[in-house]
Design goal:
The protein is α/β, with parallel strands linked by helices. It is built from 14 helices and 15 strands. InterPro entries: Put_metallopeptidase_dom, VWA-like_dom.
Protein backbone atom coordinates (compact mmCIF):
# COMPACT_ATOMS: atom_id res chain seq x y z
CA UNK A 1 0.00 0.00 0.00
CA UNK A 2 1.18 3.48 -0.80
CA UNK A 3 -0.90 6.35 0.54
CA UNK A 4 -2.22 8.72 -2.10
CA UNK A 5 0.37 11.31 -3.09
CA UNK A 6 3.23 9.49 -1.35
CA UNK A 7 6.40 8.95 -3.38
CA UNK A 8 7.78 5.46 -3.93
CA UNK A 9 10.23 4.54 -1.15
CA UNK A 10 13.73 3.27 -1.77
CA UNK A 11 14.81 -0.01 -0.14
CA UNK A 12 16.96 1.96 2.31
CA UNK A 13 13.99 4.13 3.27
CA UNK A 14 11.82 1.05 3.75
CA UNK A 15 14.44 -0.54 6.02
CA UNK A 16 14.72 2.62 8.12
CA UNK A 17 10.95 2.97 8.37
CA UNK A 18 10.53 -0.67 9.45
CA UNK A 19 13.21 -0.24 12.13
CA UNK A 20 11.67 2.99 13.39
CA UNK A 21 8.20 1.43 13.52
CA UNK A 22 9.43 -1.64 15.41
CA UNK A 23 11.08 0.62 17.99
CA UNK A 24 7.90 2.68 18.31
CA UNK A 25 5.83 -0.42 18.94
CA UNK A 26 8.24 -1.46 21.70
CA UNK A 27 7.93 2.03 23.20
CA UNK A 28 4.16 1.72 23.15
CA UNK A 29 4.32 -1.66 24.87
CA UNK A 30 6.46 -0.06 27.60
CA UNK A 31 3.96 2.78 28.05
CA UNK A 32 1.16 0.25 28.37
CA UNK A 33 3.17 -1.67 30.97
CA UNK A 34 2.59 1.21 33.39
CA UNK A 35 -1.02 1.98 32.53
CA UNK A 36 -2.32 -1.33 31.20
CA UNK A 37 -0.06 -4.26 32.19
CA UNK A 38 -2.70 -6.71 30.96
CA UNK A 39 -2.44 -5.41 27.39
CA UNK A 40 1.32 -5.01 27.62
CA UNK A 41 1.74 -8.65 28.70
CA UNK A 42 -0.32 -9.82 25.75
CA UNK A 43 1.57 -7.76 23.18
CA UNK A 44 5.00 -8.55 24.64
CA UNK A 45 4.41 -12.26 23.99
CA UNK A 46 3.50 -11.79 20.33
CA UNK A 47 5.94 -12.34 17.53
CA UNK A 48 6.56 -8.98 15.84
CA UNK A 49 6.27 -8.66 12.06
CA UNK A 50 6.84 -5.15 10.74
CA UNK A 51 6.62 -5.02 6.97
CA UNK A 52 5.20 -3.00 4.11
CA UNK A 53 2.34 -5.29 3.11
CA UNK A 54 -0.63 -4.42 0.90
CA UNK A 55 -2.77 -7.00 2.73
CA UNK A 56 -2.41 -5.30 6.12
CA UNK A 57 -3.09 -1.56 5.74
CA UNK A 58 -2.21 -0.52 9.31
CA UNK A 59 -2.02 -3.35 11.87
CA UNK A 60 -3.32 -6.83 12.58
CA UNK A 61 -2.94 -9.73 15.01
CA UNK A 62 -2.96 -13.33 13.75
CA UNK A 63 -2.34 -16.85 15.07
CA UNK A 64 0.16 -18.78 12.95
CA UNK A 65 1.11 -22.36 13.82
CA UNK A 66 0.06 -21.88 17.40
CA UNK A 67 1.88 -18.59 17.95
CA UNK A 68 0.37 -15.09 17.99
CA UNK A 69 1.89 -12.47 15.69
CA UNK A 70 1.46 -8.71 15.63
CA UNK A 71 1.69 -7.35 12.08
CA UNK A 72 2.39 -3.66 11.54
CA UNK A 73 2.56 -1.79 8.24
CA UNK A 74 4.74 1.33 8.77
CA UNK A 75 3.04 3.18 5.91
CA UNK A 76 -0.27 3.15 7.74
CA UNK A 77 0.73 2.88 11.40
CA UNK A 78 3.20 5.76 11.42
CA UNK A 79 0.64 8.23 10.03
CA UNK A 80 -0.91 8.24 13.52
CA UNK A 81 0.21 10.06 16.67
CA UNK A 82 1.59 7.88 19.48
CA UNK A 83 -1.55 7.97 21.62
CA UNK A 84 -3.55 7.04 18.53
CA UNK A 85 -1.15 4.17 17.87
CA UNK A 86 -1.75 2.87 21.39
CA UNK A 87 -5.48 3.00 20.68
CA UNK A 88 -4.83 0.90 17.56
CA UNK A 89 -2.71 -1.54 19.60
CA UNK A 90 -5.54 -2.05 22.09
CA UNK A 91 -8.06 -2.18 19.24
CA UNK A 92 -6.25 -5.15 17.67
CA UNK A 93 -6.02 -6.96 21.02
CA UNK A 94 -9.78 -6.61 21.53
CA UNK A 95 -10.48 -7.95 18.04
CA UNK A 96 -8.53 -11.15 18.58
CA UNK A 97 -9.51 -11.79 22.21
CA UNK A 98 -13.18 -11.33 21.28
CA UNK A 99 -12.67 -13.83 18.43
CA UNK A 100 -14.06 -11.44 15.81
CA UNK A 101 -12.16 -13.23 13.05
CA UNK A 102 -13.88 -16.50 13.99
CA UNK A 103 -17.36 -15.13 14.73
CA UNK A 104 -17.79 -13.64 11.25
CA UNK A 105 -17.87 -16.87 9.27
CA UNK A 106 -20.73 -16.84 6.77
CA UNK A 107 -21.34 -13.12 7.15
CA UNK A 108 -20.82 -10.36 4.60
CA UNK A 109 -17.13 -9.46 5.22
CA UNK A 110 -17.46 -5.70 4.75
CA UNK A 111 -20.53 -5.42 6.93
CA UNK A 112 -18.96 -7.60 9.63
CA UNK A 113 -15.80 -5.47 9.66
CA UNK A 114 -17.85 -2.32 10.27
CA UNK A 115 -19.81 -3.94 13.10
CA UNK A 116 -16.71 -5.27 14.87
CA UNK A 117 -14.94 -1.93 14.67
CA UNK A 118 -17.84 0.12 16.01
CA UNK A 119 -18.38 -2.41 18.81
CA UNK A 120 -14.84 -2.18 20.20
CA UNK A 121 -13.91 1.41 19.35
CA UNK A 122 -16.49 2.68 21.84
CA UNK A 123 -15.21 0.32 24.54
CA UNK A 124 -11.63 1.59 24.77
CA UNK A 125 -11.21 3.97 27.70
CA UNK A 126 -7.61 4.90 28.45
CA UNK A 127 -5.67 7.93 29.62
CA UNK A 128 -2.90 7.15 27.11
CA UNK A 129 -5.03 6.16 24.10
CA UNK A 130 -6.95 8.54 21.85
CA UNK A 131 -9.53 7.54 19.24
CA UNK A 132 -8.11 8.34 15.78
CA UNK A 133 -10.32 10.73 13.85
CA UNK A 134 -10.78 8.29 10.97
CA UNK A 135 -12.04 5.38 13.09
CA UNK A 136 -15.54 4.03 12.61
CA UNK A 137 -18.08 4.74 15.36
CA UNK A 138 -21.74 3.86 15.87
CA UNK A 139 -22.92 7.44 15.29
CA UNK A 140 -21.40 7.44 11.79
CA UNK A 141 -24.11 4.95 10.80
CA UNK A 142 -26.99 6.30 12.92
CA UNK A 143 -26.77 3.40 15.36
CA UNK A 144 -27.28 3.23 19.13
CA UNK A 145 -24.32 2.82 21.47
CA UNK A 146 -23.46 -0.28 23.46
CA UNK A 147 -24.56 -3.12 21.17
CA UNK A 148 -22.64 -6.25 20.20
CA UNK A 149 -21.20 -6.77 16.73
CA UNK A 150 -23.96 -9.28 15.96
CA UNK A 151 -26.67 -6.82 17.00
CA UNK A 152 -25.15 -4.08 14.84
CA UNK A 153 -24.90 -6.56 11.98
CA UNK A 154 -28.59 -7.42 12.19
CA UNK A 155 -29.57 -3.74 12.00
CA UNK A 156 -27.26 -2.85 9.11
CA UNK A 157 -28.09 -6.01 7.16
CA UNK A 158 -31.77 -5.06 7.19
CA UNK A 159 -31.10 -1.75 5.46
CA UNK A 160 -31.92 -1.77 1.77
CA UNK A 161 -29.18 0.52 0.52
CA UNK A 162 -25.49 -0.55 0.60
CA UNK A 163 -23.49 0.88 3.49
CA UNK A 164 -21.04 3.57 2.38
CA UNK A 165 -18.36 5.62 4.09
CA UNK A 166 -19.88 8.56 6.01
CA UNK A 167 -19.05 12.03 4.62
CA UNK A 168 -16.98 13.04 7.67
CA UNK A 169 -14.51 10.21 6.98
CA UNK A 170 -13.94 11.03 3.34
CA UNK A 171 -10.46 12.21 2.32
CA UNK A 172 -8.92 10.27 5.23
CA UNK A 173 -6.86 7.09 5.44
CA UNK A 174 -10.15 5.24 5.97
CA UNK A 175 -11.29 6.60 2.60
CA UNK A 176 -8.04 5.36 1.05
CA UNK A 177 -8.62 1.86 2.43
CA UNK A 178 -12.31 1.54 1.64
CA UNK A 179 -12.53 3.30 -1.70
CA UNK A 180 -9.12 2.41 -3.08
CA UNK A 181 -7.73 5.95 -3.13
CA UNK A 182 -4.15 4.73 -2.81
CA UNK A 183 -1.46 4.12 -5.38
CA UNK A 184 -1.79 0.37 -5.92
CA UNK A 185 -1.37 0.80 -9.69
CA UNK A 186 -4.96 1.98 -9.84
CA UNK A 187 -6.32 -1.22 -8.33
CA UNK A 188 -8.60 -1.25 -5.35
CA UNK A 189 -7.22 -3.42 -2.53
CA UNK A 190 -9.23 -6.40 -1.53
CA UNK A 191 -9.21 -9.08 1.10
CA UNK A 192 -6.86 -12.04 0.93
CA UNK A 193 -9.08 -14.45 -1.01
CA UNK A 194 -10.74 -11.87 -3.25
CA UNK A 195 -14.26 -12.09 -1.76
CA UNK A 196 -16.14 -8.84 -2.22
CA UNK A 197 -18.66 -7.34 0.15
CA UNK A 198 -22.16 -6.98 -1.25
CA UNK A 199 -23.68 -4.95 1.60
CA UNK A 200 -20.69 -2.67 2.33
CA UNK A 201 -18.43 -2.56 -0.75
CA UNK A 202 -14.81 -1.74 0.03
CA UNK A 203 -15.06 -2.36 3.77
CA UNK A 204 -13.77 -5.92 3.26
CA UNK A 205 -10.35 -4.25 2.97
CA UNK A 206 -10.25 -3.34 6.68
CA UNK A 207 -9.43 -6.85 7.93
CA UNK A 208 -8.21 -8.75 4.85
CA UNK A 209 -6.65 -11.60 6.85
CA UNK A 210 -9.76 -12.58 8.82
CA UNK A 211 -11.50 -14.84 6.33
CA UNK A 212 -8.42 -16.97 5.72
CA UNK A 213 -7.69 -17.16 9.45
CA UNK A 214 -11.24 -18.32 10.23
CA UNK A 215 -10.63 -21.53 8.25
CA UNK A 216 -7.31 -22.37 9.92
CA UNK A 217 -8.07 -24.72 12.86
CA UNK A 218 -10.44 -22.34 14.70
CA UNK A 219 -10.62 -24.48 17.84
CA UNK A 220 -6.85 -24.53 18.11
CA UNK A 221 -6.80 -20.74 17.66
CA UNK A 222 -9.35 -20.31 20.41
CA UNK A 223 -7.26 -22.43 22.77
CA UNK A 224 -4.17 -20.36 21.99
CA UNK A 225 -6.06 -17.12 22.65
CA UNK A 226 -7.46 -18.52 25.90
CA UNK A 227 -3.93 -19.42 26.99
CA UNK A 228 -2.65 -15.93 26.16
CA UNK A 229 -5.44 -14.29 28.14
CA UNK A 230 -4.96 -16.61 31.13
CA UNK A 231 -1.27 -15.72 31.17
CA UNK A 232 -2.02 -11.99 31.10
CA UNK A 233 -4.59 -12.37 33.88
CA UNK A 234 -2.06 -14.17 36.09
CA UNK A 235 0.63 -11.58 35.34
CA UNK A 236 -1.57 -8.57 36.13
CA UNK A 237 -4.00 -9.55 38.92
CA UNK A 238 -6.54 -6.86 39.75
CA UNK A 239 -5.53 -4.77 36.72
CA UNK A 240 -7.78 -6.16 34.01
CA UNK A 241 -9.23 -3.28 31.95
CA UNK A 242 -12.97 -2.82 32.32
CA UNK A 243 -13.61 -3.31 28.61
CA UNK A 244 -12.01 -6.77 28.84
CA UNK A 245 -14.30 -8.15 31.53
CA UNK A 246 -17.22 -9.01 29.25
CA UNK A 247 -14.84 -10.23 26.54
CA UNK A 248 -13.09 -12.58 28.98
CA UNK A 249 -16.44 -13.88 30.18
CA UNK A 250 -17.46 -14.68 26.60
CA UNK A 251 -14.08 -16.23 25.82
CA UNK A 252 -14.33 -18.75 28.64
CA UNK A 253 -18.10 -19.22 28.93
CA UNK A 254 -17.99 -22.41 26.86
CA UNK A 255 -14.86 -24.32 27.77
CA UNK A 256 -13.11 -25.87 24.79
CA UNK A 257 -13.64 -29.58 24.37
CA UNK A 258 -10.03 -30.61 24.94
CA UNK A 259 -10.35 -34.12 23.48
CA UNK A 260 -11.62 -32.60 20.23
CA UNK A 261 -8.71 -30.15 20.18
CA UNK A 262 -6.30 -33.03 20.81
CA UNK A 263 -7.69 -34.85 17.79
CA UNK A 264 -7.62 -31.67 15.67
CA UNK A 265 -4.00 -31.02 16.63
CA UNK A 266 -2.90 -34.56 15.76
CA UNK A 267 -4.74 -34.69 12.46
CA UNK A 268 -3.35 -31.30 11.41
CA UNK A 269 0.12 -32.90 11.47
CA UNK A 270 -0.80 -35.67 9.06
CA UNK A 271 0.50 -35.23 5.54
CA UNK A 272 -0.38 -36.81 2.23
CA UNK A 273 2.41 -37.59 -0.19
CA UNK A 274 2.87 -39.45 -3.48
CA UNK A 275 4.78 -42.72 -3.43
CA UNK A 276 6.50 -43.93 -6.62
CA UNK A 277 5.70 -47.47 -7.72
CA UNK A 278 7.88 -49.84 -9.75
CA UNK A 279 5.01 -51.38 -11.74
CA UNK A 280 4.91 -51.60 -15.53
CA UNK A 281 3.86 -48.44 -17.44
CA UNK A 282 0.17 -47.62 -17.31
CA UNK A 283 -1.88 -48.34 -20.45
CA UNK A 284 -3.83 -45.15 -19.84
CA UNK A 285 -0.90 -42.83 -19.11
CA UNK A 286 1.80 -44.47 -21.23
CA UNK A 287 5.31 -44.35 -19.74
CA UNK A 288 4.25 -41.96 -16.97
CA UNK A 289 4.44 -43.71 -13.61
CA UNK A 290 1.59 -42.20 -11.64
CA UNK A 291 2.50 -43.81 -8.35
CA UNK A 292 -0.06 -43.79 -5.54
CA UNK A 293 -1.18 -41.44 -2.81
CA UNK A 294 -0.63 -42.58 0.71
CA UNK A 295 -1.19 -40.95 4.05
CA UNK A 296 1.90 -40.85 6.22
CA UNK A 297 1.35 -42.32 9.67
CA UNK A 298 1.91 -39.74 12.31
CA UNK A 299 4.92 -40.12 14.60
CA UNK A 300 3.74 -38.67 17.88
CA UNK A 301 5.48 -38.26 21.22
CA UNK A 302 3.12 -38.17 24.18
CA UNK A 303 4.81 -36.98 27.36
CA UNK A 304 3.40 -37.28 30.86
CA UNK A 305 4.56 -35.06 33.68
CA UNK A 306 4.49 -37.63 36.46
CA UNK A 307 4.25 -35.12 39.28
CA UNK A 308 1.49 -36.00 41.73
CA UNK A 309 -0.91 -33.26 40.58
CA UNK A 310 -1.47 -34.89 37.17
CA UNK A 311 -2.26 -38.35 38.52
CA UNK A 312 -6.04 -37.91 38.69
CA UNK A 313 -6.20 -36.93 35.00
CA UNK A 314 -4.15 -39.81 33.59
CA UNK A 315 -7.01 -42.23 32.94
CA UNK A 316 -9.10 -39.84 30.83
CA UNK A 317 -6.00 -38.46 29.09
CA UNK A 318 -4.66 -41.88 28.09
CA UNK A 319 -8.07 -43.02 26.90
CA UNK A 320 -8.06 -40.12 24.42
CA UNK A 321 -4.55 -41.05 23.29
CA UNK A 322 -5.80 -44.62 22.80
CA UNK A 323 -8.16 -43.37 20.10
CA UNK A 324 -5.24 -42.04 18.04
CA UNK A 325 -3.46 -45.38 17.61
CA UNK A 326 -5.11 -46.19 14.28
CA UNK A 327 -3.37 -43.29 12.52
CA UNK A 328 -0.30 -42.61 14.70
CA UNK A 329 2.82 -44.34 15.95
CA UNK A 330 3.03 -43.14 19.54
CA UNK A 331 5.95 -43.08 21.95
CA UNK A 332 4.76 -42.59 25.53
CA UNK A 333 7.36 -40.82 27.65
CA UNK A 334 7.12 -40.52 31.42
CA UNK A 335 9.21 -37.73 32.89
CA UNK A 336 9.54 -35.95 36.22
CA UNK A 337 12.92 -34.23 36.60
CA UNK A 338 14.36 -36.75 34.15
CA UNK A 339 13.09 -39.35 31.70
CA UNK A 340 11.67 -42.33 33.61
CA UNK A 341 10.45 -44.51 30.76
CA UNK A 342 9.88 -44.58 26.99
CA UNK A 343 7.37 -47.12 25.68
CA UNK A 344 5.53 -47.86 22.45
CA UNK A 345 1.95 -46.96 23.25
CA UNK A 346 0.46 -49.92 21.38
CA UNK A 347 2.45 -52.25 23.68
CA UNK A 348 0.96 -50.78 26.86
CA UNK A 349 -1.89 -52.36 28.81
CA UNK A 350 -3.77 -49.37 30.22
CA UNK A 351 -5.51 -51.53 32.84
CA UNK A 352 -2.13 -52.24 34.47
CA UNK A 353 -0.42 -48.95 33.62
CA UNK A 354 2.26 -47.99 36.16
CA UNK A 355 3.36 -44.40 36.77
CA UNK A 356 7.10 -43.89 37.28
CA UNK A 357 8.56 -40.91 39.07
CA UNK A 358 6.27 -38.52 40.97
CA UNK A 359 9.25 -36.29 41.78
CA UNK A 360 10.13 -32.74 40.67
CA UNK A 361 9.49 -31.53 37.13
CA UNK A 362 11.60 -30.43 34.18
CA UNK A 363 10.33 -30.38 30.60
CA UNK A 364 13.83 -30.11 29.13
CA UNK A 365 14.63 -33.87 28.90
CA UNK A 366 11.53 -34.58 26.80
CA UNK A 367 12.43 -31.96 24.21
CA UNK A 368 16.07 -33.06 24.19
CA UNK A 369 14.95 -36.62 23.47
CA UNK A 370 12.55 -35.42 20.77
CA UNK A 371 15.15 -33.36 18.90
CA UNK A 372 18.25 -35.57 19.39
CA UNK A 373 16.39 -38.93 19.37
CA UNK A 374 18.41 -40.05 22.37
CA UNK A 375 19.22 -38.96 25.90
CA UNK A 376 21.35 -40.31 28.72
CA UNK A 377 20.47 -39.07 32.20
CA UNK A 378 21.95 -42.02 34.04
CA UNK A 379 19.95 -44.35 31.85
CA UNK A 380 19.95 -44.20 28.05
CA UNK A 381 16.66 -43.74 26.17
CA UNK A 382 16.20 -43.61 22.39
CA UNK A 383 13.44 -43.18 19.82
CA UNK A 384 13.50 -44.30 16.18
CA UNK A 385 12.35 -41.08 14.53
CA UNK A 386 12.02 -37.43 15.38
CA UNK A 387 8.33 -36.89 16.22
CA UNK A 388 5.99 -34.90 14.00
CA UNK A 389 4.41 -33.46 17.12
CA UNK A 390 4.48 -33.56 20.92
CA UNK A 391 1.54 -33.72 23.32
CA UNK A 392 2.50 -32.94 26.92
CA UNK A 393 0.22 -33.50 29.93
CA UNK A 394 1.42 -31.32 32.81
CA UNK A 395 0.53 -29.03 35.68
CA UNK A 396 2.76 -26.38 34.09
CA UNK A 397 5.20 -26.23 37.00
CA UNK A 398 8.56 -26.74 35.34
CA UNK A 399 11.21 -25.37 32.99
CA UNK A 400 10.87 -25.67 29.21
CA UNK A 401 13.21 -24.73 26.35
CA UNK A 402 13.12 -21.15 25.11
CA UNK A 403 11.77 -22.52 21.82
CA UNK A 404 11.06 -25.80 20.07
CA UNK A 405 10.29 -26.10 16.36
CA UNK A 406 8.36 -29.36 16.81
CA UNK A 407 4.61 -28.59 16.99
CA UNK A 408 3.61 -29.00 20.63
CA UNK A 409 0.27 -29.16 22.41
CA UNK A 410 0.44 -28.48 26.15
CA UNK A 411 -2.48 -30.18 27.89
CA UNK A 412 -2.62 -28.28 31.17
CA UNK A 413 -4.43 -29.23 34.36
CA UNK A 414 -7.07 -26.72 35.56
CA UNK A 415 -5.57 -23.39 36.72
CA UNK A 416 -2.05 -24.48 35.74
CA UNK A 417 0.42 -21.72 34.81
CA UNK A 418 2.00 -21.46 31.38
CA UNK A 419 5.39 -23.26 31.56
CA UNK A 420 8.44 -21.09 32.13
CA UNK A 421 11.34 -20.83 29.68
CA UNK A 422 14.98 -21.47 30.60
CA UNK A 423 15.83 -17.81 30.03
CA UNK A 424 13.01 -16.65 32.29
CA UNK A 425 9.42 -15.62 31.66
CA UNK A 426 6.66 -17.73 30.22
CA UNK A 427 7.14 -19.56 26.94
CA UNK A 428 5.47 -18.08 23.86
CA UNK A 429 5.46 -21.15 21.62
CA UNK A 430 3.29 -24.22 21.31
CA UNK A 431 -0.46 -24.50 21.74
CA UNK A 432 -2.34 -24.78 25.02
CA UNK A 433 -5.56 -26.35 26.20
CA UNK A 434 -6.87 -26.76 29.74
CA UNK A 435 -8.51 -29.93 30.97
CA UNK A 436 -12.12 -29.44 32.04
CA UNK A 437 -12.45 -29.07 35.77
Amino acid sequence: MRIKGQAELTEEQKTMMISHTTNRLQDNIYLMLREHPFYSTLLANFGIKTEIDDKIPVAAVTIQKGRPFRHTNPLGYMTYQQNEQIFIDIHEILHITDLHHLRGKGKDPGLWNICCDIEINQLIKSAIAVLPKNCLMYYHFNLPAGLSAEEYYEILESREEPITLPPELQNTLMDDLVNGNNDNNGEQPNNSNGQKSQKAPGFENLHPHWEEAANDAPEVQKAVIQGMVRQAMVSSPGKIPGEMEAIIERLFEAQLNWPKLLSTFARSLLSTQRRNTWSRPSRKFGSVKMGSLRTKRLNLMVAIDTSYSTKQYLESFLSEIEGMKHYANINLVQCDYGIQSVEKFDMINLDSFVVHGLGGTSFLPVFELATAKEIDNGKRFTIDEKPDGIVYLTDGEGTAPDFCSIPTLWVLTPNAPIPKAESGGQINWGRYVYLDE
